[in-house]
What does this fold into?
Amino acid sequence: MEPRLLLDSQQLHITMQRLCCQILEQNLSLDDIIIIGLQPRGILFSDRIVAMLRMFQPNIHLDYGKLDITFYRDDFRQSDKLHLPDATDITFLIENKHVIIIDDVFYTGRSVRAALDALLDYGRPRKVELMVLVNRKYHHHVPVQPDYIGISVDTIVSQKVCVEWKVDDKTTDQVWILQEPKSAKE
Amino acid sequence: MSQLSTRHLLGINNINTDDIRLILKTATQFKEVINRPIKKVPTLRDLTIANLFFENSTRTRISFELAEKRLGADIINFSASSSSVTKGETLIDTVNNILYMKVDMIVMRHPAPGAAQFLSQHIDASIVNAGDGTHEHPTQALLDAYSMQEKMGDLRGKKIAIIGDILHSRVALSNIFCLHKLGAEVMLCAPPTLLHHHVTSLGVHVSHDVMEALRWCDIANILRIQLERQSIKYFPSLREYTLRFGINKKMLDSLQKEIVIMHPGPINRGVEISSDAADSEQSIILQQVENGVAVRMAILYLLAS
It folds into this structure.
């Protein structure tokens, strides 16, 4: 199957604007809000969201952290691949705060489950919400649902959602659905 | 490099430079973990680790215990003096009995050089060498390298002097292997009686003048005199050793540059180093202890995966 473009650069920009507006619409003040991006891919999305929120409301103070979930994964020692940790950068207290976790693709939900465990090591938030750019429906393994969704898609297991971000002149903001190559066994 | 090339950590000589860099890089993330309000992650919650100490230890044993507990592992502690080893049980029998109680990993300190290597050939669990006689102490070398990198950046081209009882030190040998693999230069400084005859074959500089070593180096790693391993006298008296090879703040102040002072502990204050030098701002001795937990967490994490 040919790769299918899910969101082009303009659509992605509009989607992110809408997500920022939803945060602002549902929260009168951002003083109590903490944004946590999930390493490694989620922070590319959360960087954009935080930049947009700061652009919409230049004078706000918005705490923004990055969370690595490697040590909380439930598949450690169950796959051949070793998961190497990325940096966690949370330099503020989350106790009694409203935390919005941001990830790029919501698939099985296991990463978010691990993130909830990891987050509790930094305190007890008053409320935790989840924002995702792409919600892959019908594949969730745990009872977790996103609160802010960029786009929901129906996919099959053999497909992969690929989120590309513009980092230089050769790249652009895009979201693709790819067909993963069949393994040798098949 | 995303995986260790070995399933044991027997010595620095048995691992490659990529392994060392992977361990040091992973340790950085664990250092963040041990500085959180809740210093524990559940990563090794399904593992049981046995700490077998056939030789006395304070900081290494506590450091391993903390590393294991902070990774969520179950641990059992074993010391030779209170075990069936005193009734004549062999090392392999002792360890195999422990492994049949569903233990997954062994951390072992033993007075015999090569004990960890020997054990790795006879049992099926991952082994971490926590010091084998006068042979190697790989985790100490890795935490020393981590502390040096943290303070000085990349170690390529850096000059490190190891000063003290080289002959009886497993830390010295592991440090030499590790620092060479990371591209640093090493100088050994000790009385001729406390150096191996063929030490230059390791590619190190040798000096018997402590001021020459201090002037040459960026970092001085000072070792204690291991009287418990010395069956004969290697120098006339501790007082004479201190006069010739002891390091004090006055000596450090007389240098044209500020060097970093390290010591793997335990310190014999007033013998190999004075209190004013050990407690000076140039000293990173306590940072070494903190980094030891993070580095050991990284080693256990990478070996368990």
Notes: The longest strand of chain A covers residues 127-137.
